[in-house]
Amino acid sequence: MTDNCFLCLEKAKKNMCPAGVCKMKCHTKCYRKYMEVNGKKNITCPVCKSVKLNKYNLRKRNIYKRVDKNEFIKRIKNFLFLVEQYNGTDNKKEIVIEMFEFIYYNLWFLRKYERFANVFKDKLIELYIQDNWNYANEVHKRLYGSFIR
Q: Do the domain assignments include residue 5?
């Protein structure tokens, strides 16, 4: 990666990868222009395409709020429906990240319904091993206290 801004191609010092994965350099002013053109909901790095969880958008969807059983099931169905509707891996990952965060903030459901908890854990392992998606390993660590081996 060069030390040039990815937009204006002049020297830049600040790392601006939203996910913190690559060493993309950009001026703050250039990045603001990029966000204006591409929308503030854009949480994908323009260079490495890594996805960053946008907590502002998640709060608007109230995923940090604990819900009852019926609401939980309704929201999970909605997340899965959205995953089916979106085209492109990055869009699907963004929705799956939101779903994982929603589940994380409603851990009571995993504790109460063992079958769902087992399916969820198996899916995390599958996403990490088969799709090589490191975020699934991070969620596994947060929920179960250990990384997937």
A: yes
Check whether residue 65 and residue 121 sit in a common domain. Answer: yes
Other beta carbons within 10 Å of 97: 20
Residues 45 and 21 sit within 8 Å (Cβ to Cβ): yes
Asked if residues 79 and 98 have their Cβ atoms less than 8 Å apart, the reply is: yes
Supply the pTM of this predicted model. 0.56
76 and 118 in one domain? yes
Burial track 50-77 (b if 16+ CB lie within 10 A, e otherwise): bbbebeeebeeeebeeebeeeebeebbe
Question: According to the per-residue pLDDT averaged within each range, which of 7-16, 96-105, 120-129 is highest?
Answer: 120-129
CA angle 120, 121, 124 (to 5 degrees): 90
Question: Is residue 149 one of the residues assigned to a domain?
Answer: no
Give the pair of three-digit tokens for residue 69: 């059983």
Contact call for residues 96 and 83 (beta carbons, < 8 A): yes
pLDDT score recorded for residue 116: 93
Residue type, 27: H
Q: How far is Cα 6 from Cα 47, in angstroms, rounded to an integer?
A: 8
